Amino acid sequence: MKILVVGSGGREHAIVWAVSRYGHRVYCAPGNAGIARLAECVDIEPLNIPALVNFARRQKIDLTIVGPEAPLVAGLADELEKQGLKVFGPKSAAAQLEGDKSFAKRLMLRYRIPTAQFEVFDDYERAIRFLTGRRLPVVIKASGLAGGKGVEIARSFEQAQQVLSGYMREDRLGAAGRTVVIEEYLTGEEVSIIGLCDGKRVRFMIPSQDHKRLLDNDEGPNTGGMGAYAPVPVVTEEVFRQIVERVFEPLLKCFAQEGIDYRGAIYAGLMLTDDGPKVLEFNCRLGDPEAQAILPLFEGDFAEVCRQCAEGGLSGQDADIPPADRWALCVVLASKGYPGSYEKGLPISGEVEDGENLLVFHAGTRMENGRLVTSGGRVLAVTGLGRSLPEARQRAYYGVGRIHFPGMQYRHDIGFRGLRHISEG
């Protein structure tokens, strides 16, 4: 097949890597320096929908795989389908599951999908009155797309005031933050369950666990993700059965009854609480950096499964936890200053190459005057593979140690919860 992958990050590099292994001809728009080694990069931005559609039509692309959420919310899948082109990624109405958190929360309430208690506000004064005297902490979320920056845990009333003012009065997130969701703070262990959906059925990928905080011991600000590993020991067969029955089965019922034609990746970010799994968020695409951990463990031709989803013909729902005889652990290397402002164009040196049981996925990189330089907040993602979690972790951090760029920062404790469960088990 001729495949077009849309996006430029580590997730898209992992998708291109997975697809190119099976001999497909791959284009990527716009891609990055690492993707360029595997695919033909096309200088079209993900939100330039007319140019992407024209390119796909002109090149007779057999399947477009959309990496990031923004073009899906903006209607890229809709426009591709209007031209009779196959696309893996939901249309805009379905992508609102991620693009509008208030919409998603109300659907969960309607279909009894377990989630945190919540209220939705588009008026600052009403939100403040709601919080007055309320038990803290609470979680405040921008309802719209905010690039991973729209979630704050408010541990004091003053902090909640500051967050709400920034979102709703000062427009720090633009339109994304003008409506907010305030929800109860859940405790437990967080996991990511990602399925490939054809609208009626789901093929599940191996459970993974993201590390969202910038610093070791889950300290520092929230980020887009500083690392991930898979599988997750805490997701036992019984826990996975609960997730399927309580989350995904009612979600598919929701799609059917609401007339939502959902064809693409469906990501459930879950908190495993004492009362069972509860949904923190739904996303309409593969996670990043989860993709860099789960795609190397994926069995079979990923593009072929995506094609089946796009055509609405996935062969049966796999309600069992996917088997895994290997482990993967991914460590993100980020620029100094991330997730705030950071410098670009810094030289990257060392062994930025795949090795035995070692994969280096590019996220924010470009070639400049013949040398590899940084071009984003998250720069590289180093994935180690092994027959055990300690082995995968050792290989990932070995790979990290071979790479350098000025101000490089990363977490040293990716996989710590998994290691703890293994030692306790």
From TrEMBL:
<keyword id="KW-0436">Ligase</keyword>
<dbReference type="Pfam" id="PF01071">
    <property type="entry name" value="GARS_A"/>
</dbReference>
<dbReference type="InterPro" id="IPR011054">
    <property type="entry name" value="Rudment_hybrid_motif"/>
</dbReference>
<dbReference type="InterPro" id="IPR013815">
    <property type="entry name" value="ATP_grasp_subdomain_1"/>
</dbReference>
<keyword id="KW-0658">Purine biosynthesis</keyword>
<dbReference type="InterPro" id="IPR020559">
    <property type="entry name" value="PRibGlycinamide_synth_CS"/>
</dbReference>
<dbReference type="GO" id="GO:0005524">
    <property type="term" value="F:ATP binding"/>
</dbReference>
<dbReference type="InterPro" id="IPR020561">
    <property type="entry name" value="PRibGlycinamid_synth_ATP-grasp"/>
</dbReference>
<dbReference type="GO" id="GO:0004637">
    <property type="term" value="F:phosphoribosylamine-glycine ligase activity"/>
</dbReference>
<dbReference type="GO" id="GO:0046872">
    <property type="term" value="F:metal ion binding"/>
</dbReference>
<dbReference type="Pfam" id="PF02843">
    <property type="entry name" value="GARS_C"/>
</dbReference>
<dbReference type="InterPro" id="IPR000115">
    <property type="entry name" value="PRibGlycinamide_synth"/>
</dbReference>
<dbReference type="Pfam" id="PF02844">
    <property type="entry name" value="GARS_N"/>
</dbReference>
<keyword id="KW-0479">Metal-binding</keyword>
<dbReference type="InterPro" id="IPR020562">
    <property type="entry name" value="PRibGlycinamide_synth_N"/>
</dbReference>
<comment type="similarity">
    <text>Belongs to the GARS family.</text>
</comment>
<dbReference type="GO" id="GO:0009113">
    <property type="term" value="P:purine nucleobase biosynthetic process"/>
</dbReference>
<dbReference type="InterPro" id="IPR011761">
    <property type="entry name" value="ATP-grasp"/>
</dbReference>
<dbReference type="InterPro" id="IPR016185">
    <property type="entry name" value="PreATP-grasp_dom_sf"/>
</dbReference>
<feature type="domain" description="ATP-grasp">
    <location>
        <begin position="105"/>
        <end position="311"/>
    </location>
</feature>
<dbReference type="InterPro" id="IPR037123">
    <property type="entry name" value="PRibGlycinamide_synth_C_sf"/>
</dbReference>
<protein>
    <recommendedName>
        <fullName>Phosphoribosylamine--glycine ligase</fullName>
        <ecNumber>6.3.4.13</ecNumber>
    </recommendedName>
</protein>
<dbReference type="GO" id="GO:0006189">
    <property type="term" value="P:'de novo' IMP biosynthetic process"/>
</dbReference>
<keyword id="KW-0547">Nucleotide-binding</keyword>
<comment type="pathway">
    <text>Purine metabolism; IMP biosynthesis via de novo pathway; N(1)-(5-phospho-D-ribosyl)glycinamide from 5-phospho-alpha-D-ribose 1-diphosphate: step 2/2.</text>
</comment>
<dbReference type="InterPro" id="IPR020560">
    <property type="entry name" value="PRibGlycinamide_synth_C-dom"/>
</dbReference>
<keyword id="KW-0464">Manganese</keyword>
<keyword id="KW-0067">ATP-binding</keyword>
